[in-house]
Structure formats: structure tokens, C-alpha cells
Amino acid sequence: MALSANDAFAAGGGRRSRRRYGRGRRGALSEINVTPLVDVMLVLLIVFMISAPLLTAGVPLELPKTEAGAIQDQPEPLTVSIRANGSIYLGEDAVPFANLAPRMKAMAGDEPRPVYVRADKQARFETVAQVMASLSTSGFTSINLITDTGGPSSGAAPSTGEEPAGP
Which residue has the higher pLDDT, 71 or 165? Predict the structure, then answer.
């Protein structure tokens, strides 16, 4: 009785099976596999390295070369303060209204400088408007009215507890 090749493998071929627990059974892994995490992080790093320079420059341009230097620092702004009693100060010096525009022109010189107008909340609107109009007609184009933060929002009723007087 001769055995064929298939019969020899079916009978075990004289070898013992090394698998005792069946196919695919393994013990539980007690370690976290960080290889996929590292792969994802490297891909994200590459994406950000490529996209970061594109975010800073909107349109690539080749700028012309000139002999002009870099822009110097912006000039110091001039500050005009108006107290509640109507007195006007240029910086920390009291100035009569008639002398305000000539003194500001002398301080600014030929260079356009921004002007900050600070007015007390009790100051008359008429005085503030006159000062701003005088500065505007004197050639100052950047006039800023300085306020304090934290006040009521626009259109909000006063929070004094009193109702506004009606007709």
C-alpha cells in the first residue's frame, strides 16, 4: 500500500502540530501601539510646514528695488485736553482757545501728526466741537476723540434705576 503525497500531508507527515490553542488565538496586548500615532503626527507636521508660508503671503510678488529707506517710526501724536470748566490744555500746558491752532502748527511743523482730543464728560459739547473744528480748519486731518471703555452700549437705557422722563 503506497501513500500518495496528499495522504502524507493529511496524516500529519510524521510531524506534530505546534499550535496547541487553535488558529488565531493570542494573549491580550498590554502595550499601546504608538506607530500609527507617530505616522499621523508626521503627516500633519509636513502639511503645516508646507502650508504655513502660504498663509503669510497672500499673492506672490516680486517687488521693485528703490533707493528709498524704510519708513521711520510714526510721529508722536499731539494731545489736546478739555476740562469740565472749558479750559484747554496742549499736552500739559494750558492754552487759550485763540492760541491753540498756531501753537499746534508750530509743534507739528511740516510733518502731519495725529491729534488726540480728550474731553471731560462734563465739558460742554460746544467747546469740544469748536476745538475739533479749529483743528480741522488748521490742516490737521487725523483727529481722534479719546473715550474711556466700560460705558453703556449704544441705545442702552441708563442704569440709575430711574425711568426716563416722558411727555
Answer: 71
